[in-house]
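thought: fold this chain, then report.
action: predict
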Amino acid sequence: MTLPPEVKKILETLKEGGLEGFVVGGCVRDLLMGREPKDWDITTNAKPEKIQKLFPEHVYENTFGTVGVKTGSEDSVLAIVEVTPYRVEGKYTDKRHPDEIKFADNMADDLWRRDFTINAMAMDSEGNIIDNHGGRKDIQDGLVRTVGNPEERFSEDALRMLRAVRFTATLEFKIEKETFQAIQKNAGWLKAISKERIRDEFVKIIESDRAHEGIQLLEECGLLEYIIPEMREGIGVAQNLHHIYTVWEHNLLALKYTADKKYSLPVRLGSLFHDIGKPRSKRGEGTHSTFYGHEVIGARMVAGIVDRLKFANDISEKIIRLVRYHMFFYTPDEVTASSVRRLLANVGKENVEDLLKLREADRIGSGRPKAIPYKLRHLKFMIDKVSRDPISVKMLKVNGNDVMQELKDGPGPKVGLVLNMLLAEVLDDPTKNKSEQLISRIHELDKSSPEELAGALKKIQDAQEAEDKTLADKHYVQTNQD
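observation:
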């Protein structure tokens, strides 16, 4: 277990100053497991003022006494190493933050306040381990166990219940029995935690290799109800003759596929949520039940979820689009180039590759043996073929300035409405994307009412849906079969 030179230098500097210094927490756990630490934390009996004096190049802006020591390393993980005095914490009356923090004089008190045994170990510069709570044995046994009484630990910070699930997913561990029972008993405490903190832990579960097992464990612990209760609606909901799994099982298996493939966060979340609207759209029972419009319902539900958990706008928009358009219908011999252009316009060219990955996950999650059948390969060919055609307003041969100049008008909503109407027409026939033709059409559209112009985007969507339905009816299939 070799410490990086930057970390070792900090420990040596503390020692030369007559002070104690240990690496502590997750980095020790990772070293014992042969994993590369994602961050480095050092604890010491020095107070913040002394730490700052020993390390002039530092950052200090917090109430916990932590000093960020600048090492000059080119490695982002080691560029700033956090050095914190030993400390003990008061009661957590809000189940989120300690009422008070006091600096301690010894390592034992500092380790006692930590969440899990596997995170409550320290190591000196020579590699000697301090393990007062059996962390090494729990690593060997693959267990997540709280330091001391689990209910006390979770009452201090209820987010620790979610962290327990996250560690099982990322480390491939199990939750120790008493710790698990305490989570089940007190899952409702999670309501006291901010949505941002919940989101961050949830994302780490989704980004783990065992993401689907993490979601299943959230349900078993009773935590999912306080994070994404909408997902639970799919538990036990049978599907139709195209599916051998319930909605809940299908969504988890789709997530598993994207995790196995190391796909991005939006694709993983899109796969988990893609059929979330099915329970609310289900009509009938048995093998011929239907779920018409579940993708529209699901997109609305997902919009609420990502807003509640305060996801960034760009990620939110992508996930919503993936769920909304995952039901695209494609038959190589009959789908036209214009329908592919409309798909690109609706989904966004930048999201198409992720949409196809979601479709792969949908197929595998349904129990089908092949993720990328011929028709998906053909669709990729068609996308490449039409990718140079105009599929967005930016690709038109006229722009907003042209519209204002021709109509002798200033900026306003009408400019965008006219451009959207031009795009809707060009999607059907790319040969119309000529500046002279479009300018002529601008003057014709000037006579249209705002209501007529406002229907342009809906026209694009309706045309895609109408073509999908025509093909589906012709081939005696349901467009909700995937």
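thought: worth noting. Residues 474-482 have pLDDT under 50 and may be disordered.
final: tokens above.
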